[in-house]
UniProtKB/TrEMBL annotation:
Phylogenetic classification of the source organism: Bacteria, Pseudomonadati, Pseudomonadota, Alphaproteobacteria, Sphingomonadales
Domain called HTH tetR-type: residue spans: 25-85
Keyword Chaperone: no
Start and end residues of each stretch annotated as Disordered: 1-22
Residue ranges: DNA binding: 48-67
A Pfam family the protein falls into: TetR_C_7
PROSITE patterns: HTH_TETR_2
Official protein name in the record: HTH tetR-type domain-containing protein
Molecular-function GO terms, alphabetical: DNA-binding transcription factor activity; transcription cis-regulatory region binding
PANTHER family per UniProt: HTH-TYPE TRANSCRIPTIONAL DUAL REGULATOR CECR, HTH-TYPE TRANSCRIPTIONAL REGULATOR RUTR
Length: 221
């Protein structure tokens, strides 16, 4: 499925009465936010282009001029939301330190926090629900959300392995295993009737980090 880019096309010298580029971008963001809210609340099937247009005071023609059908609008709105809930590389680099255990705990906490926001919870639900209709959705979610964290973690493990502090033959696999360990319990229960408390999440993260490190630390004969 072809994804539609979200950058609005506008003349750098708008004619009188036409919106500026900044205004056009703001209106497009408003439209995508309204569409996302409807897709999250009603699902893809029950959301209509007419309802989205009415919610933001636009004509259907305006929306169809940018997105040829509801599927294109859905992918644009959900794709934008995925990008918003992604953990920034700069944030990951800012918490990196010399102590690997402290860094791993900080990475886990940061990723759990990003995935536990109300928008993050609803977003995962709609991705799971609609992935059969949009096969590209899971890959988009992974490439923009999980993969940057995975790649940063793999690089971190390579660095500590080269320094002799740990022994990791397959850092990419180790990074995937680590994220599965730390996210599995807390994220599975987010939004459930009995989510983990902050203290329980912290205990889980610290236990998972210790278990992971015990498996990769170098040992003398």
């Amino acid at each position: 499925m072809m994804l539609v880019m979200d950058t609005p096309i506008s003349d750098p010298r708008p004619a009188a009465g036409r919106p500026t580029r900044e205004q056009a971008q703001a209106r497009q963001a408003e439209m995508l936010d309204a569409a996302l809210d409807m897709f999250l609340d009603k699902g893809f099937e029950l959301t209509t282009m007419e309802a989205v247009a009415a919610a933001v005071g636009m004509t259907k023609r305006t929306i169809y001029a940018r997105y040829p059908d509801k599927a294109a609008l859905f992918m644009a709105a959900v794709g934008r939301a995925i990008a918003r809930t992604a953990t920034p590389r700069a944030a990951l680099e800012a918490i990196a330190g010399d102590d690997l255990e402290t860094t791993l705990v900080a990475i886990a906490r940061l990723r759990i926090a990003d995935l536990s926001t109300p928008e993050g919870v609803r977003l995962r639900r709609i991705i799971t629900t609609e992935s059969y209709r949009f096969p590209d959705l899971l890959m988009l979610s992974y490439s923009q959300g999980a993969q940057p964290v995975h790649d940063h973690l793999a690089d971190l493990l390579r660095h500590h392995d080269s320094a002799g502090a740990i022994c990791v033959d397959r850092p990419d696999m180790a990074a995937s295993l680590f994220m599965t360990m730390v996210l599995g319990g807390p994220i599975r229960l987010v939004g459930s009737p009995q989510p983990m408390s902050a203290a329980e999440v912290d205990d889980w993260v610290r236990a998972a980090v210790r278990l992971f490190l015990n498996g990769i630390r170098t040992r003398s004969d």
